[in-house]
């Protein structure tokens, strides 16, 4: 009896494993086709100056509108793209498309200071030997000034390839491109270690911002991060601002920039154009 039970459990396990493998494979195939069918779309989330409340630029966030399954979150498909190497062509497309669109906005709204674009880079993308050449070419092709481009990488990407990363950052500096550390606080690095790299800004992960703004909580941790970052001449971008209380605390800590649903969700480019138009003509 025990034996047959064990067997049954084994069979269930096998089935689940199989189903998972099949659906992962399916996801990979679908993703490959999504690129060809142009089912991927970039959404843009405003990044706001916490001093002036003006939009300074956007973060490009990838969306996949799957024919059968509807919207699939990047948290789900970016890891698949990373594992299969599809992140390389996808990342190139995101970079080109977002730089192109940002240049269009700059030309459309010449009376505001030039809008900037933040692009997320995964580990594999950042490790491409010809990355600098690619970025240089895209800047030339789209006409976007290097100063308008900011690249977001996580601490682990930096630390796992420290030598390569140091070299990359130097090259990016030469193009005027800035480097931001994404999801800061969720990794293991210390700020003093990060200081060895030419980093322009830290994005404080939204898990920290989430804990702010309630009565029974103090923002000690964010306060410490902000003070140290400022001592090291880095700016702070707070992610995931959802309430006015959070905004006010972050302003009190002299965080330079913020993004979150309080200001705006990530939006399609047409909606962003309307948003800029509104903010210019009010
Ligand atoms: P991330 O770079 O840390 O992006 C911030 C995430 O927080 C986004 O999730 C954004 O939609 C979400 N968010 C913004 N404001 C709020 C808020 O007020 N509250 C809450 N709860 N969430 C907020 P999203 O768009 O699902 O992207 C998830 C992650 O996928 C990104 O995290 C980034 O690591 C990755 N990703 C997205 N697009 C790309 C891409 O083009 N290339 C690469 N390599 N990774 C990407
Ligand atoms: Mg990001
Ligand atoms: Mg982040
Ligand atoms: Mg994140």
From TrEMBL:
Start and end residues of each EAL domain: 24-280
Protein name, UniProt field: Diguanylate cyclase
Species of origin: Gloeocapsopsis dulcis AAB1 = 1H9
